[in-house]
UniProtKB/TrEMBL annotation, chain A:
Start and end residues of each F5/8 type C domain: 18-124
One Pfam family, short name: F5_F8_type_C
SUPFAM superfamilies: Galactose-binding domain-like
Name by which UniProt lists this protein: Intraflagellar transport protein 25 homolog
Function: Component of the IFT complex B required for sonic hedgehog/SHH signaling. May mediate transport of SHH components: required for the export of SMO and PTCH1 receptors out of the cilium and the accumulation of GLI2 at the ciliary tip in response to activation of the SHH pathway, suggesting it is involved in the dynamic transport of SHH signaling molecules within the cilium. Not required for ciliary assembly. Its role in intraflagellar transport is mainly seen in tissues rich in ciliated cells such as kidney and testis. Essential for male fertility, spermiogenesis and sperm flagella formation.
Family recorded in the similarity comment: Belongs to the IFT25 family.
Annotated GO MF terms: metal ion binding
InterPro entries: FA58C (IPR000421), Galactose-bd-like_sf (IPR008979), IFT25 (IPR033558)
Keyword terms of this UniProt record: Calcium, Cell projection, Cilium, Metal-binding
GO cellular component: centrosome; cilium; intraciliary transport particle B
Subcellular location: Cell projection, Cilium
Organism, scientific name: Callipepla squamata (Scaled quail)
Automatic annotation (TrEMBL), chain B:
A GO-annotated cellular component: cytoplasm
Function: Small GTPase-like component of the intraflagellar transport (IFT) complex B that promotes the exit of the BBSome complex from cilia via its interaction with ARL6. Not involved in entry of the BBSome complex into cilium. Prevents aggregation of GTP-free ARL6. Required for hedgehog signaling. Forms a subcomplex within the IFT complex B with IFT25. Its role in intraflagellar transport is mainly seen in tissues rich in ciliated cells such as kidney and testis. Essential for male fertility, spermiogenesis and sperm flagella formation. Plays a role in the early development of the kidney.
Domain of life: Eukaryota
Stated family: Belongs to the small GTPase superfamily. Rab family.
Protein known as: Intraflagellar transport protein 27 homolog
Keywords: Cell projection, Cilium, Cytoplasm, Differentiation, Flagellum, GTP-binding, Nucleotide-binding, Protein transport, Spermatogenesis, Transport
Record-linked Gene3D superfamilies: P-loop containing nucleotide triphosphate hydrolases
InterPro entries, A to Z: P-loop_NTPase, Rab_GTPases_membrane_traffic, Small_GTP-bd, Small_GTPase
Heme as UniProt keyword: no
Keyword Transport applies: yes
GO biological process: cell differentiation; intracellular protein transport; intraciliary transport; spermatogenesis
């Protein structure tokens, strides 16, 4: 798992955009490989963030660690720019009082240049996203 | 600098001054609408205010809702996922005060199991001689239902910012508490 994550970060996976920002809990925290740092949403839903890869990758596993998220939708794009997204999965998460939601998404391997996470609704006014794991390999070019 | 955003449901009987309040707030007291216009459905107004003693702010998306029952089915859809409530009555109209219970029940049904900060607002305090709902009575009702309370006269441009200042403070407090909880999870 770790090596796969390293491969992605070495490949330059980066957070491109997010709808909320608290400078103390920036969205970059979702992609730093740590569970103790997090991104907070700061208001009304839906809220989203987009992670970009510098080139097309094949993703074999997607997981998220978050709190108070109810409905989550994941989309992917294979375009050079973050456009033309299509749905991968939409799921209602269980509320886990006092502990992180650890959610694995059962997806067949797919290609992407961008991943978009849309939090459509929540169990409270605000949610936190602590970590996003996208394991995969860069395509040989 | 954090900018929170809050969906604020503004509700209450017809003609208690909901739209007048919303417009006055948005225009910083620049204009009091003398003519009455019935709101059908919803009017959306957006305005940010700063949270006292912080460098942070709350942007309100105020859903000024029709007071007439006629439009209530449509409202329920538009009221989904609220963050704060502003419930207005007319201090010269007892019925509008009594109906607050009904409004509150409808509003709270939108977010069962969640704490939604709210404020009860008595408007038209300029009509001193016609007042029928006393401050004490309204304050007690608000306390009992977990709401803050304030009075204002939109016509006299008095205190029209108070409800939103109260809501901004409560919502900001909620955010801070939640962030503490997020910290404790890892």
């Amino acid at each position: 798992m770790r090596s796969a994550e390293r491969r992605l970060s070495a490949a330059g996976a980066a957070l491109l955009v997010a709808t909320s920002s608290d400078p103390e809990h920036p969205a970059g925290n979702v992609a730093d490989g740590r569970s103790d740092t997090f991104w907070t949403t700061t208001g009304m839903f839906p809220q989203e963030f987009i992670i970009g890869f510098p080139e097309r990758v094949t993703i074999s596993r997607v997981a998220i660690q978050c709190y108070l998220v109810r409905t989550l939708r994941i989309e992917r794009s294979v375009s050079k720019d973050p456009v033309d997204f299509e749905e991968c999965i939409e799921k209602d998460l269980q509320h886990t009082e006092g502990q992180l939601q650890m959610e694995e998404f059962p997806l067949p391997a797919f290609q992407a240049t961008h991943l978009r996470f849309i939090i459509k609704s929540a169990f409270d006014h605000f949610v936190s996203v602590h970590r996003v794991i996208a394991e995969g390999t860069a395509e040989d070019t | 600098m954090v900018k929170l955003s809050a969906k604020c449901l503004l509700a209450g009987d017809p003609a208690v001054g909901k739209s007048a309040l919303a417009q006055m707030f948005r225009n910083d007291g620049a204009h009091f609408q003398k003519n009455y216009t019935l709101t059908t459905g919803i009017e959306l107004l957006v305005k940010a205010i700063s949270v006292p003693e912080t460098s942070d702010s709350v942007e309100f998306f105020i859903f000024d809702s029709a007071g007439k029952d006629l439009f209530s089915e449509m409202l329920e859809k538009l009221w989904e996922q609220p963050n704060v409530l502003c419930l207005v009555y007319d201090v010269t109209n007892e019925q509008s005060f009594n109906n607050c219970a009904k409004w509150l029940e409808k509003l709270r049904a939108q977010a069962v199991g969640m704490h939604i900060p709210g404020v009860l607002v008595g408007n038209k305090t300029d009509l001193v001689g016609r007042r029928v709902v006393e401050q004490k009575q309204a304050q007690e009702w608000a306390d009992k239902h977990g709401l803050e309370y304030c009075e204002m006269s939109v016509k006299e441009m008095k205190n029209f910012e108070a409800p939103f200042n109260i809501l901004a403070k409560s919502f900001y407090q909620l955010y801070k508490e939640k962030v503490e909880i997020f910290h404790s999870l890892a």
